[in-house]
Structures are given as structure tokens and as C-alpha cells.
Amino acid sequence: MIFLAGYQFDWRVVTDRWHLFVAGAWVDLWVAIIGFALACGIGLINALLRTSGVPIFSIPSFLYVQVMRGVPLYVLLLWVYFGIANITGLTFTSFQAIVIALALTGSGYTTEIFRAGLGAIDRGQMEAARSIGLSRVRTYGHVILPQALRIVVPPLGNTFVGLLKGATIMAVIAVPDMVFLANELNVTLFTPFEVFAAVAAILIVMVLFFSAVVYLLERRLRIG
Amino acid sequence: MSGIFLTYSYDWSVIPKSIAFFERGLGVTVRIAILSVLFSLVLGLVVALVRMAPGPIGLIGFFYVQVFRALSLYVYILFVYFGIAAAFKLDFDPITAGVLSLTLLNSAYMAEIYRSAIQAIEPGQREAARSLGLGTIGTFVNVTFPQAWRIAVPSLVNQFTDIIKDSSVVALIGAPDLMYITTERVSFYQRPFEFYTTVAGIYFVMVVIVAQLAWRLEKRLRRHLA
Fold first, then answer.
1. Do A197 and B10 touch (CB under 8 A)?
2. How far apart are CA A124 and CA A141, in angstroms?
3. What's the pTM value of the predicted model, to 2 decimals?
4. Does B79 lie at the interface with A, CB-CB under 8 angstroms?
């Protein structure tokens, strides 16, 4: 402990405010969930456009995926929050900006996942279902989607975990999440080790929890 | 809401005026990314070997991978640059802290890439090499690794694209990288749209170049299998 003599550890900074950290983590989680839900919606539509075989749809869809996967989330966030706000005159709240940025980044990945999932279902399935008299909608509902879901759920889960980690960048534009709280406590109380260790620990627990869920889902869905 | 898109007059001339700044920032970004990828290529292999070791040693590797894959670079860089530095009286400069954080995080991902590549090599190869009289190390260096490397390279190069993108976060602790100088220029000219669009384009081009490289390497390395 000698070499640590200069720094007084004071974990009460964290333990006295654990409810604030939990509230902050909750913000990260919710933002990630909303961003992920939007990313899934955009991704599904985009995957259908991509696989449509119509170049006016599939080419922009392809470029969209490349761009969203090639631009860092942090750049995208500032682009949405400051750039788009400036040219359109729309002012996003910082909360909206991070949700949009996560949805954009996430949709780059979800598009590819849905594309692969839909592509993996054999065409004969569609033909067989149609020939036994199921309508197109029922074929999708009862035959294609249940099978495609099994394929897409694990990678979508991984995308969610990625977005949850990415969501922590929201502190940069002052959304009051757990990192923002830690930054504030660090400035006012100067306890960087404790507060950032706490945030790191919370993030690790959340991510490992959802990774475990994804792993279990993956194992379950693989059977049959 | 009236006049959306119409009231704003674009001024792209601020971009060519800032070329010298972009060059300087890009230099720092490239340096950080290349150092991080080289260090994590080495550290990742070490972690993979530790992870595959039997017993408690393997467990250490397992935890290393789980912990570092569960962190975001932003949270980790704050912890290193402010937390560790204050508690242990270390004086990091932002670039060192950035390279260190990027290396630790990415070595965990690379360890998993190496591991799955090594496990993809048929056990018979190792057994054959051993029965020819090669030692454990000789077998790994001469037989297992050269084959695993071919499998791992495309994924490792793809990991490089993540390093390039993630490196933008080092701007937040004051490393004068591409993103840092961009934010600086934005506050100077008050032209966020022009600057952030340009910088997004620069990152995109870097990522596309590296992804292309990965794709070409993959094709080349698979040639012998065709």
C-alpha cells in the first residue's frame, strides 16, 4: 500500500450514491433498448430493400450499410446533434440525438443480419407452403419468419450488447447517464478511481448479463 | 419549421482552409491505430495461449477476455486516464493512454480470433508433428501457428477497422487526433455540418481501405483451398 500513499481511496463516494449510479445505468440501458428497437425496424426494411432485386432500392441500401458501419459512433453522434441540427434548424434533445445515432449505427449491422437470416431459408419452404394452400402472408407468419427468427436472434442480441456499450458515449453531449454522473463526481469531489471503477463494473455486469442471455438463447434456438 | 434546408447556406470553403489541421490530426489517428493494432496482435496471441492453458491459468485468460470485451472504450479510457493515473500517481499523456486502452480492449477480441483459428486446426496435425519428434513449442511455431494465422488474418484485419473507428474516442481525453482537431475547427468556424460530414467521410474511407485489404487477403489466403 506504500505506493498508493498519495491517493486516499474513499469508496463512500460510490456507496452513498449507489442509487444515482443505478439511475444512470438505467438511462444507458433504456437508450440502448430504444436505439436497438429502431435499429431492428430500419434493418428489417433495409434488408427487404436490399434483397428486392430492384437496383434503385438495393444499391442505396447497400451504400447505407457501408456508410453506417464505416463511421464511428462518436462522429455520427456529433454529426446528428450539431451538424443536422445546424442545417435543418431542427433541434434534437441530447437524448434524441443519442437514440438516433445508435439507431443509425445499429441498423448498419441489423440490415446484414436480417439479410442473412431471410436468405438462409430455403426457397422450397415458400414453394411448399404455398402449394399446400397457405397464403403468402400466412407462409411468412407460420413458415418463413419462425425459422428466420431462430437464425437472427443471437446476432441481434450481440448487436444489442454492442449498442449498450456504445450508449455510454452519450455523456459527451450531457445526457445524464452513469458516465455523466461519474464525470461530475470526479470534477466536484476528485475521486476518479472510485467513480470510474464503479461505472466500469456496472457496465461489465450489464454486458455480461446480456451476453449470457444471448448465449442461452443461441443454445436453445439451435436445437431442432 | 418553414424553410427547412433552405435557410442554411453551406460554406464548404472552410474545409480546404483546414487541410493542414486535418493532415496533422490524421497523422495522430493513424499512429494511434497502427501502434494499437501491432501491440494488440502480439498481446492477443499471448492472451489466446493463456486462455487455452489448462487449469487456473486458463481461467485468468478467460476472465481477461470477458472483462475487456464487456467494456466500452470510452468508459475504459476514462478509468485509465483519470482513475488509474490518479490512484497510482502515473502521468499518462493522452496518446499513451489511448494506445494502452485500445490495445487492452482489442487484445481480448483478437485473442478470441486466434483461439478459434488455432482450434480449427485438426488435432491430427499436432499429433503427427509430435510423433515426428517436434517439441510442443516446435509444433506450435512450425505447424499449428502458420496454418492458424492464415485463418485468423482476415478477421484480425477486420478488427483493425474497429480500432480505427474506436480511436476517435481518444479525442475526449485531449489526444490531438483527427476528431479532436475537427471539434476544434468546429468551434472556430461554427460549421458543424461541413466539418463532421467531412470527418465522417475520412473515417469511412480509411475503414473501406482496410476492409478491402481484409477481403483481398482472405481471397489470397484461401487460394490454396480452391
1. no
2. 16
3. 0.91
4. yes
